[in-house]
């Protein structure tokens, strides 16, 4: 049965900021959404159809990309970095300096909502999770691996997304106090954002991706090259071009899913005497959790040779490990020590190829700090905490998804797998 087409048309309504007068002309970047927006509103996980593109969110993303470039390319450190950031992007507190970068969003058009699950946008969701799982939108099923937080939501409004095709104009200009260095830095920051950033939540997994359709400065329509990315301490790999952005996103999502848990890559093939879709994980974490908790079924005695190695945490945390079966461990959570979250250093999304097509892209942010993060495993039912090891280079050859893809750390191995 085909999905019912569900869409809600919203008129163009975007409040305009009261911005200081300036002799600087407004520069314009015309953007088009190429993957759905996840969340992005005032309420977590709920999209805002009246204001889907927020200046505050864009400014936050620009600060992130500016900090990356400042640390990796412009050699700003600690105090000098903080002072430069506050001077350019604005400080914190009542007496903080105003930003030298003015932004406004205009002409937000073609805002439509779609649902992760079938049914009308205002209907309630099935209470039975198995029934709900079978009612996922056919259009969105290929992206279920990155939209998984919606699987456990009970309210329809938290399972809605804003459909690709939305367009908007971002206008920007600089204060008269800005100098030529400021201008060059803002231009490069904007260029990184339009290439690898996004709008809404889960942008590092490709949600809320967009392309520049037109711009007063042609540099924003030019893809960043692999060499330019390397100059900022990052790594970029690309798959062959396709005519459709959603096809490119699907490729990127499938590569990540298969690397982590695909049959023959992240998991063994199932044995001949079972109806299960896959065999045991080729990663070390499940067996080490069985060892730590001293709990396992007769069919799943711990056997992985790598032992204490929670390498998938490098892709971002927390990770909740859920075992099926009464003789297996209860749920446990891998998280950074003394913190709840670590943002993924990996960005996957479709990008424009500069010729009208799209490519699945995987961008690795700098890993120097990530690989040395202290982590812990927490039992959810008892709150017991065990210190564990995130990464140890000497064990890479004992983990098949790594050894079969060039060895090295999990992100580098994934980048090798991504283009196979």
Automatic annotation (TrEMBL):
Pfam family name, one: RAMPs
CRISPR type III-associated protein domain sequence ranges: 31-210
BP term (GO), one: defense response to virus
Lineage: superkingdom: Bacteria
Keyword Membrane annotated: no
Assigned keywords, A-Z: Antiviral defense
Annotated region described as Disordered, given as residue ranges: 263-284
NCBIfam families listed in its UniProt record: cas_TM1795_cmr1
Protein's recorded name: CRISPR-associated RAMP protein, Cmr1 family
Gene: cmr1
